[in-house]
Every structure is written in structure tokens, then in C-alpha cells.
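Ex. 9. Protein: Metallophosphoesterase 1.
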Amino acid sequence: MSILRKRFYNNYLFIFTLIFIFVLFFCEYFIYYIVLSQCNWPSLDPHKAVSSVDTPKLDEHPVRAIFISDTHLLGPKRGHWFDKLRSCTYKLLTTIVGDIFDEGDWSNDKEFDNYISRFHSLFSVSNDIRLFTMAGNHDIGFHYAITPYSNQRFVNKMKAPSVQRISTNGNHFILINSMALEGDGCFLCKSTEIAINKVAEHLKCAKGIRNNCTKNDELSIYSRPILLQHFPLYRTSDEMCNELDEAPHEIKRLQFRERWECLSKEASEQLLDILNPRLVVDGHTHYGCRRIHRDDILEFTIPSFSWRNIDNPSFLLVSFLIYQIFC
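Predicted C-alpha cells for Metallophosphoesterase 1:
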């Protein structure tokens, strides 16, 4: 009788172990592929464009982009080993709009180098995919805490200056460091303001509304740019947001502080005046939101891509034509 009982327990333990391994494999690995298999690039049906100012050319090839925000890769201080084990992520992406690291602003040089190595390990891409990043407050600190050294360290390691313009297939992407838009004339804000105005001049030259343009100012074609930044444009709260991944009701009612949860009203208006973007993509709040500014400027706030921040991490797939956007 004892032998039969022992066999029963052994069989039970074996079955339990198999179930445990299967559940662990499914929840920590296989489920991501199931979810990703349901994601498709937006259809290029002109009637489904979220932004459109003209009819696309028949031979125009779309620029496809994946936007990710607030990955918050864990550091040595607040990270638990099991959280780090679960940080496996997808390898196809284009732009991470800030807060790549969770403790970048606290890290010493050795810890920051470890962050960089881990980032390139998790977010490695093939040669045909272009990867761009920009700083968030968790990467270099809020404006008051940024030093020339911490800023330059991020710029050098991530190849991410405070202002970048990337042009491809007639689409112009402008990446801006949100913490450099304080407007107080500091070492970071002054150079960022100059760089933004220079980009605006290039766009005006391409549009043919500026004189004294040089070859260095030339763009092959003009189209309204896509603005990418970490902080959302100015808004009082998330109450006007009605997305599937919106903030919980009790969080939506919380009032935003300018320069903390969003850009200042002044900086937001200046960006829209100077650049006149057709799309703005940002993050920072950890929840989704879609807004329209000035009747024809669409803003997407992307939810966090970290399980530690929200229970439904997501990203944004967009196809760009010169005069149309498909999400």
C-alpha cells in the first residue's frame, strides 16, 4: 500500500512540475508572441487616415514606426531580481520617447554603463531598422537636477542630443528633450532653443517661405513634421482622455503641474507656433491619451511599456505618408 501511495505522490509531483513549467513558460514568454500576432500595421486606406491634408502619390512608400515610452529598465537600487528576469521585450522598434531607465538620474558612471549595456541587449535591432531615443526625467533628472555632466553623459552614450531631426521619405521627425524647455536661459535650454529655431528655418526653406537659404538648409521636400518628446503638451489633467488604456478615474482627476506632469503652457504654444507639427507623440504619464490641438494637430500620449507601472503595457504603431498618418 505504501508503494502505491509513493507512486501516486511521485506521479502527482511530476504532473504538477510539468504544469508549473508550462504556465511559467506561457506567461513569461509565449504569451507575448500570441499578443504580438494580433498587432498589424495600420491599413493605408485614405478613408482611415487620422490626419490628412492631400491625396497620396501612388508610388509613395510609407514610413512605419513603433513608438514606445517609459520602459523604466530597472537599476541596482530599486530593482528586484525577479522584476529584472521579466524584462524580456520585443526587438522591433523605432523610437523610445524617454524614461528609458528607471534610475538613470541616480546612477554613477559604472551603473550607467551597465544600464547602457542592458539597453542594447534588450533593444537590439537589425541593420534595416533605425533606433532613436530621447531623454526622460528618469534618465537625467527633472530640469532643476540636470547637470552639464549628466546631460552630456546621456547624449554621448545614447547618441541623443537635445534636438534631433530625422528625415526619411519626405517625413520629418523632430525629437526634443522636454526638460530643456524650461525657458530660463540655462545651459541646456538656451542651446535647445537655438537648435529648435534652426530646424524651423530648414522647414521654412523647404516650404519656400524663407530667403537666404543655403545648401545646408535644404530638405528634399516639405511636409509638416512629427514632434516626439517625453512630456505631454500642456493640459490640466487626463480627464479629457477617453482611450482603452486611459488612466483610472481617480488618477484622471488629478491636476497636472506645468513642467512636472506636462510642458508649460508657454512652451507648448511656442512649439506649436514654431514647428506646426501634424502629429505629437509623447509619454511620461504612463497612461494613454489622444487630443486634438488647433483643429489639425493630433497628440498621442503613449502608455508605459513597463509592467511595473501599469498592467496593460502597450506601444503605438504608425504608418506615415508625406501628407497622411495612419494609426
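Check your answer against this statement. The mean pLDDT is 85.
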